[in-house]
């Protein structure tokens, strides 16, 4: 497959959104990303998306990362795919870009590039929480507050269900136990290679067992 790539220029309105997000995420992750910063590729439509992936991907996929670069669907297409309400499109699109930027910050922060970052609920939950998608009122991306399935999503399964609770779960961890513990947990992910190892590391950092009860009791 051959693709034509065009430079959008520095005046593109997304550039401001990008700079704001990079600044905010730099503060959260506590590093200034000044060199080799992420490129953002705007993908024209779903046909191009599937061609880039060499397969048809789940319909709801509107953004992804490759290395430290970010790919997002064009705003109108993303709005249609995600069924964003009129009047919410700009804010949701900003959150989408930030969501993908959280993923690349997470890769750099954890130092994990040769495999997917697990657990998937933490990977997605962090991106949902930090991008503000917990506030989008959409059950597909963080609206859930029940805490009964996110722990099933240690590995990515492409079902989309991971988005239901994971944003709230990460928000819960940060608001109740602080950012420092979460960053400590992320730093340790590089040595984690199984769900069992993760449970152990989680308990070391937080001082309690990773289970739904604590999320339900304290919220
Ligand atoms: Zn994501």
- SSE order in H/E notation? HEHEEHHHHHHH
Per DSSP, the total helix count is 9
Shape: globular
Mean pLDDT: 93
- The radius of gyration is 17 Å
Tell me roughly what share of residues is in helical segments.
Answer: 40-55%
Structural class designation = mainly alpha
Binned strand content: 5-15%
Hetero groups bound? zinc ion
Euclidean distance between termini CA atoms: 49 Å
Major sheet: arrangement of strands: 1-3-2
Number of DSSP-assigned strands? 3
Low-confidence runs: 139-143
Number of separate structural domains: 2
Q: Main β-sheet, in a few words?
A: 3 strands, mixed
Walkthrough of the structure:
The protein is mostly helical and 219 residues long. The protein has two domains: 11-112, Zincin-like, CATH 3.30.2010; 115-219, no CATH class. The chain is 51% helix and 6% strand. It has helices spanning 13-29, 46-53, 75-82, 89-110, 120-131, 162-177, 179-188, 195-206, 212-218; strands at residues 40-43, 63-66, 69-73. It has a three-stranded mixed sheet with strand order 1-3-2. Helix 3 (75-82) crosses helix 4 (89-110) and helix 4 (89-110) packs across helix 5.
Question: What is this structure's SSE topology?
Answer:
Layout: H1 13-29, E1 40-43, H2 46-53, E2 63-66, E3 69-73, H3 75-82, H4 89-110, H5 120-131, H6 162-177, H7 179-188, H8 195-206, H9 212-218
Parallel strand pairs: 1-3
Antiparallel strand pairs: 2-3
Bound molecules: zinc ion.
The site of zinc ion (ZN) has 4 residues, from helix 4 and helix 5.
């Amino acid at each position: 497959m051959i693709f034509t790539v065009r430079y959008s220029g520095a005046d593109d309105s997304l550039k401001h959104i990008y700079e704001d997000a990079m600044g905010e995420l730099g503060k959260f992750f506590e590093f200034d990303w000044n060199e080799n910063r992420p490129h953002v590729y705007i993908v024209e439509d779903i046909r191009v998306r599937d061609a880039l992936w060499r397969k048809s991907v789940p319909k709801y996929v509107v953004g992804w990362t490759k290395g430290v670069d970010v790919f997002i669907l064009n705003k109108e297409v993303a709005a249609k795919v995600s069924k964003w309400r009129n009047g919410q499109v700009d804010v949701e699109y900003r959150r989408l870009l930030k969501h993908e930027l959280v993923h690349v910050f997470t890769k750099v922060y954890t130092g994990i590039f040769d495999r997917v970052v697990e657990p998937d609920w933490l990977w997605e939950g962090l991106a949902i929480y930090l991008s503000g998608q917990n506030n989008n009122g959409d059950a597909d991306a963080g609206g859930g507050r029940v805490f009964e399935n996110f722990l099933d999503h240690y590995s990515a399964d492409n079902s989309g269900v991971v988005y239901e609770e994971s944003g709230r779960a990460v928000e819960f961890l940060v608001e109740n136990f602080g950012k420092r513990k979460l960053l400590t947990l992320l730093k340790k992910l590089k040595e984690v290679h199984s769900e069992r190892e993760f449970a152990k590391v989680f308990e070391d950092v937080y001082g309690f067992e990773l289970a739904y009860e604590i999320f339900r009791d304290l919220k």
